[in-house]
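We now fix the convention by which a protein and its fold are recorded. The integers have meaning only within a learned vocabulary of local backbone shapes. A record is reproduced here so that you can trace the correspondence yourselves:
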Amino acid sequence: MKDLFGKALLDYHNGNYTADIVTSTSISDDEILPLPYLFRDFNGMPQLEKKALQITRGKVLDVGCGAGSHSLYLQKKGFVVKAIDISKGAIQVAKQRGVKLVEEKHLLEETELFDTILLLMNGTGIFQEIAQVSQYLSHLRTLLNPKGQILIDSSDIKYMYEDDDGGFWLNTNGGYYGELEYYLSYKGENEQEMKWLFLDFDTLQIACNTVNLNCELVMKGEHFDYLARIQ
């Protein structure tokens, strides 16, 4: 990986903001991801993220912390927060912005125990594909203190397959419709394509049940998105 995401965060943080990130998927065209959005404060966050931060408790793990916006908010509220990301550039930015406990680490390498684990901004994306969901959920379960919680958001993207007549053109012989190829570019340079998973709530709940975790719907968003609590 070229870590173009981290490069973009570093550019913005260091005052070199001249372009935004461009993303697309195997079923969608190019979309702009504005860099200022990745540095938003609490007031600039969507309602699902605000709700997740409001019901956070205890020692916190912020998975895929990016520029550290969620971690910084919780730190200011007095929480002990550990932030992890696989992007070296993101880790540098989070540290420079004041996140105290930051580590470049993959979620499956984490071993500490937490009271709240945050996976926000389509947290199911890091599962990559449906076949790996149980592995990730099982590992997350080992990171929870007694009465700990996982707060995770995602979207049911079935609507993206709807035709003009209200039907859906899902390939019943293919894989799960939320499994996508994800593409990112920055300043004309293309990142290596990644697998990314959007998971509908019912499927997430079933997957949790198979590994003896309880999954409840906390809140629905405005556009087929939702926040779930797993315990």
In short: The mean pLDDT is 95. Helices lie at 4-13, 47-54, 69-76, 88-97, 133-142, 201-210.
